[in-house]
Amino acid sequence: MDLTMDLDTATTLPQRARFEAVRRRVFDEMAGVASRWRLAMTVPFQVLVIGLLASRGFAGTRLTVQIVASVVGVVALTLSEKLHHHRSAAMLGVAAFTMLVSVCNTGGLASPLLISSVPLFIGVSLNPILRRRRLFVATFLGAFAGMAWLSHSFMCRLTGPLAPTPTFASAEYVTIALASVSVTLIAIYHIGKGVTLAYERIALELAARREELCDENEGRTRALEGIAARLAHEVKNPLAAIKGLSTHVARNAEDPKVKERLSIVAAEAERLQEIVEGFLSFSRGLDDLQVGPTRPYEIARELSLLLETRAADAGVSLEVRGSRELTLNADNKKLRQALLNLVLNAMQASVRGATVTLEVAKSCADGAAVIRVMDRGAGMTPEILDRIRKPYFTTKESGTGLGIAVARGIIEQHGGSLRFESTSGRGTTATVVLPACAVTAGLRAKLPNPCRMAGKPASAPETGLGSPALARADGKVPS
Predict the structure, then answer these.
(1) What are the residue ranges of CATH 3.30.565.10 in the chain?
(2) pLDDT tens-digit series, residues 252-300
(3) DSSP characters over 346-380
(4) Checking DSSP bridges between strand 355-362 and strand 317-322, what pairing results, if any?
(5) 292-453 has which fold?
(6) 318 forms bridges with which residues in the sheet?
(7) Helix crossing, 60-82 with 85-105: angle to 10°?
(8) Pairing of the two strands 292-294 and 355-362
């Protein structure tokens, strides 16, 4: 249990330190802006209050206390923005103390200056360098409670020009109260604006850091893919030699057991060769589209002729129906390869005597092509439907799990979509939706980065697999 807590702490502390560094930097930048408007409001406000009290006969001792408290408070606020860490916190404490003195000197809880202390509370609660905010709040609560206790004493009582008349509040009291409310509202507005800007800065910086991490990880992933692809390429040639030699020796072998074993070696070598070739195809990524007029019905009909012999061996019949005249701007070769993988999956999922149907239709809404590949096999459970989206997942013993990934990548490169609907015991339907005109730029989908996209016109992002690939034309990439 202690070890788990230590690991959690070791993981949390560096993250917390990084966050604190970002927050302090952002708040330091905010402090430079805030200091200008704070002085621009505080100094005229204090001058107005002292001038009004002096001109209206405020008691000499109290006027002196008010002047000293105001001057010390302004100086303390100014120094708190220039100093760092504990010195800045000490200056904020001095400013808070002078605020309490000013409020107590002008009437305590009945003082017209009471509301002007609100921005100070908000600033303290947002200041990242203060570690004892609760102690600060507790001190102020104690001071206010003391003012309430002394409300009938001479120290915390409205006197002189601030004292109310028999029927109304004095003009001086109303003037100072109005100035306090105005300054407080303006200060709260600037504080809220500063908090919003700080949130935006932090969010933009985090998005930029996330983009950098993703780019770095992507670069490493592509480097590993390149190494793996070269390794697979080097393995392919020895596998071909093993397959050829074992087949040749098996043909000339006189011992039945040796012949059987060599046949198994040749079959396994062929299977490994198919896996390696599928990985090589998958790791190459998507090439640019060669867009041209394409008829999906003609592609479906060609596939039915190409796979006619294989379908007959599996005891499955192929049916093509739908719109013959539908034409799209798409890559004929790639679309053929994507549909080939889907048809092969449907054939492998069908039982003997079943029919695999390719249906081509036109969407009435936007003129897009809707191609359905339907089988009447055992169907798939919701768990399998969710997992077939991932490369290298397969339910077949001899499959590589790349067929659907390749098909999805090609279809999404065209700007289309691929979805599956399956009912256990009733078969599966793969629905391909292709736009009337394919997307010509095969750009990778990237994480949203507000820093990078600021000021640029919005465009429709293209989604697709990170590194999908083309299937082999002869259909030797099972899924």
Answers:
(1) 292-453
(2) 777 888 878 888 888 888 777 777 776 666 655 556 778 888 888 899 8
(3) HHHHSPTT-EEEEEEEE-TTT--EEEEEE--SS--
(4) parallel
(5) Heat Shock Protein 90 (3.30.565)
(6) 356
(7) 160
(8) unpaired
